[in-house]
Amino acid sequence: MNKNYERQLKKGVFEILVLQLLIKEEKYGYQLINELKDKSDGVFTLKEGTLYPILYRLEDDGLVVSRWSIPSGKEVSRKYYAITDEGRATLEALKILWNGFSDKVIEILHE
């Protein structure tokens, strides 16, 4: 199968998955990459070059906010992302849309 098809299928769900991963606590980019890979058993793997434009877009849209950590000792500074109230509301709306879409896709694929 052409990898472009697989990439296109995955591309549409990354925003909703990133928002969901931020629902309980703020996280930094590398943490999001690893958690998504682990929770999806490797099905969804993001590279930094894909993740950060998504995070910047979500931030521009007011769905997430970011802050830099202040390192102590040998720690490195990290940029943490947190979901906003608007992001939570958008995530809930996207889940409803996604469930409707996926139900119909499954229905059509099983004809």
TrEMBL record:
Pfam families: PadR
InterPro entries from the UniProt entry: Metal_resp_DNA-bind_regulator, Tscrpt_reg_PadR_N, WH-like_DNA-bd_sf, WH_DNA-bd_sf
SUPFAM superfamilies: Winged helix' DNA-binding domain
Domain Transcription regulator PadR N-terminal: 18-92
Domain of life: Bacteria
Protein name: PadR family transcriptional regulator, regulatory protein PadR
